[in-house]
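May I ask for a sample protein chain and its fold as tokens?
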Amino acid sequence: MKIATFLMGSLAGAAVVMLLRRNQMVSATASSVGNRMKQSMSDMKDQWMGKALNKMLNNQKSSSSDKEQSSRSNHSAQSDYDGNTLQEIERFVSKDPEVASEVNSILEQNGQHPLS
């Protein structure tokens, strides 16, 4: 990072702090904006995790239906899902390094251990 950029960021931060201390209305507005940002980030994380799980389950469903069509046995159709959700997610995440890094960063932000 260049020193000029660092100094400009520091000055801007100091100016914001001074403004917040002097004006209670601005302080309340900043708090409101911060809470909205926190909520929107949480919603985005929930949507992303939901999409990832849906994709995993759809892939699993399609692979089990392919096996079912090829074998045509007398057994009833059963999913390959074994109830170990965390292991299934780890397997899904390990297939895509970009997804793995995103999941690990979310887990670290929440104080959890990253997936292996």
Remarks:
- The chain has a mean pLDDT of 76.
- The longest helix spans residues 24-71.
- DSSP finds four helices and no strands in the chain.
- The CA atoms of residues 107 and 113 lie 6 Å apart.
